[in-house]
Design brief:
Radius of gyration: 14 Å
Strand content: under 5%
Distance between the termini: 46 Å
Helix content: over 70%
Structural class: mainly alpha
Oligomer: single chain
Shape: elongated
């Protein structure tokens, strides 16, 4: 994939991530899942372009978003 194609793919992923953050702002637990999924292209980019810092970043965000999704889901089930 060309650098230009990666740029647009990653931009598209960020648009999805912004949508997920809007859902989070509206207190939807599944917004965290959208935000988590949006970073998959970044992870693939990091692996295919030998960017270990981006791999670490993606893993860090996945853990945080998964934690938040689980926590918000449990609160939604209780409430």
């Amino acid at each position: 994939m060309t650098d230009s194609a990666w740029t647009w793919l990653l931009f598209g992923a960020e648009v999805v991530g912004v949508g997920g953050m809007f859902a989070v702002g509206r207190k939807h637990w599944w917004g965290w899942v959208i935000v988590l999924v949006h970073s998959i292209p970044w992870f693939v980019y990091a692996l295919t372009h030998d960017k270990p810092g981006f791999v670490a970043m993606a893993l860090m965000w996945w853990v945080l978003h998964a934690y938040n999704a689980r926590r918000w889901l449990m609160e939604a089930r209780r409430g």
